[in-house]
# Entry
Amino acid sequence: MEKKQMLYEGKAKKIFKTEDEDKYIAEFKDDLTAFNNAKKGSEEGKGALNCQITTELFKMLEQKGIKTHYVDTIDSNNLLVKKVEIIPIEVIVRNVATGSLTRRLGIEDGKVLPFSLVEFCYKDDDLDDPIINDEHAILLDCVDNEGELEELRRLGREINTILKPYFLDKGLRLIDFKLEFGKDVDGNIILADEITPDSCRFWDAKSNEKMDKDRFRQGLGSVKVAYEEVLKRLRG
Ligand code: 5GP
# Structure
């Protein structure tokens, strides 16, 4: 399948049309950004690692009954995906307090939460992806009705219920992660975008070493070494 017109270029991916009007190609880039583009970098091979990690995870989730946009892995950096209209909400699921949750609410960093917390953020770089409630989401026309918000929450929790033990089995604590969903050509809500160490936080289960993009955000050294280790464990 060949790339046609580029539809969108984001911080970590480019999306292209293909000859099939219901399929897109997602190309994973080596670029790294943090703090809404205030910090920029790049590591050769990062995009390929994320493409392979997303492949492993989306295939596994499909086997567990989660509908995703994944169709096929074309090569090291490119996925064939279903055409979707992205819902402009980041669904954040948290098992352990860190990052913006500790900054916003003063909860102790590393505190295990008594339940999985689901938050919605409005996908808008100019506004720094602000946290929103259900009424904001309706007001902003992110979804058609409250039932769709319930569906996003339910899917976020269900995916967490699958991923948390899956990663723990591989020696990784799933601290938190961000999901994006889209509507396919039939209007069904399906998982889109990616699941990678750019969009999740993983801590090594023994040492609590950070194995995700916090290494770049916090200047803790190469991300590639950690992402390679994540992929190795997923495949192991
Ligand atoms: P926080 O709100 O603590 O910054 O992030 C919570 C989780 O969502 C982290 O796993 C983080 O990587 C992910 N996340 C939040 N916003 C974004 C974003 O704009 N892009 C990506 N790739 N991940 C995000």
User: Anything to note?
Assistant: The chain has a mean pLDDT of 97. The helical segments are 46-63, 99-105, 134-139, 146-168, 214-217, 223-235. The chain has two domains: 6-82, 85-222. The CA atoms of residues 18 and 79 lie 12 Å apart.
